[in-house]
Design a protein that fits this description.
Homodimer. This is FMN dependent NADH:quinone oxidoreductase. By secondary structure, the protein is an alpha/beta fold. Helices cover about 40% and strands about 20% of the residues. It has a 5-stranded parallel sheet with strand order 2-1-3-6-7, with helices on both faces.
Length: about 200
């Protein structure tokens, strides 16, 4: 059993998504004591943005720059992490209605034609092996679920769920803590609710 744990919040010890993603990994690790965990902190170790040189290399152009070669090798490692993992835990706060730029950079490195998806006769097909589970820890300051008037502004969960399905990761469980900016009582209640959901996650 292999667990891939990804954090993308820039708030360090003040981050609710980091707290809850760590609790999720601990819950899964307790259920699978022999599991190994690969941890990627995308804020502490940010991934460089893609450039034209990256795209040229993806199309088969020769790579003569050592720094670019190292970066491409690192990017391949992110795909290897994803392919090897049985369980993926991602902490994703909402920043300006969407995902953090740090997480978007990771997405750009793992959504790669020929490795994690391909174009077939019926359109794009995800290439991730079947049987993987993902637990997504979603945190946001406002409320974007149910009949909230802000629901239409949610480009965080909608985007991430869509892109994961695009590469074949469809067994996704969302653990959500929202309303975190609506006062301490609302924040505490949201965290307690999320912790209860984590405690009851399937193993």
């Amino acid at each position: 059993m292999k667990i891939l744990h990804i954090d993308s919040s820039i708030l360090g010890n003040h981050s609710v998504s980091r707290q809850l993603s760590a609790e999720t990994v601990a819950q899964q690790k307790a259920a699978h004591p022999d599991a190994t965990v690969t941890y990627r902190d995308l804020a502490a170790n940010p991934i460089p943005y893609l450039t034209g040189e990256h795209m040229a290399a993806f199309q088969g152009a020769p790579v003569t720059d050592a720094a670019l070669a190292d970066d491409l090798e690192t990017g391949n490692g992110y795909i290897d992490d994803l392919l090897a993992a049985d369980i993926i835990v991602i902490g994703v706060p909402m920043y300006n209605l969407s995902v953090p730029a740090q997480l978007k950079s990771w997405i750009d490195r793992v959504v790669v034609a020929g490795r994690t998806f391909q174009y077939g006769a019926a359109g794009p097909e995800g290439l991730l092996p079947k049987g993987k589970k993902a637990f997504i820890i979603s945190t946001r300051g406002g409320v974007y679920t149910g009949d909230s008037p802000a629901a239409a502004l949610d480009y965080q969960e909608k985007y991430l769920g869509t892109v994961l399905a695009f590469i074949g990761l469809t067994d996704v469980t969302w653990i959500r803590a929202e309303g975190l900016a609506l006062g301490q009582d609302a924040k505490d209640a949201a965290i307690v609710q999320a912790q209860g959901e984590i405690a009851g996650l399937p193993v």
